[in-house]
Amino acid sequence: MLSCKEVSHLASDHLDNPPRGWAGLQFKMHLMICGPCRRFRQHLVTSRDTAARLARQLWQEDNDTATRILDKIDESPGKK
């Protein structure tokens, strides 16, 4: 079975390219029994989705200057 350290190194790559076969099974089994790794993976998914949503919103606006982009980032949910 994979260790938490191994799962954390693989988690980002596995978001876009899920592993198959034995490697995929080991990854899924680890997530089934390890709450902290499940939360870590969920944080990665949330971060990716938030960044994609923000990027789509920014590209749809006219005249996106660096200042406006930085202002949008500062206004984003979760920004403290």
Question: Could you provide a short overview of the structure?
Answer:
With 80 residues, this protein is an all-alpha fold. The chain has four helices and no strands. It has one domain (4-75).
Secondary structure: elements and pairs:
Elements: H1 4-16, H2 21-33, H3 35-60, H4 66-75
Helix pairs in contact: 1-3
Structural summary, described in words:
The protein is mainly α and about 80 residues long. The protein has one domain. Helices cover about 80% and strands about 0% of the residues. The protein is built from 4 helices and no strands. Helix 1 packs parallel to helix 3. The longest helix has 26 residues, at about 35-60. The radius of gyration is 17 Å and the shape is elongated. The model has no long low-confidence stretch (mean pLDDT about 85).
Quaternary structure classification: single chain
- In total, how many domains does the architecture comprise? 1
Termini Cα gap: 37 Å
Strand content range:
under 5%
Structural class comes to: mainly alpha
Order of helices and strands: HHHH
Low-confidence regions: none
| Rounded mean pLDDT score | 83
What is the alpha-carbon Rg in Å?
17 Å
Number of strands: 0
Structural key phrases:
80 residues; mainly alpha; single chain; 0% strand
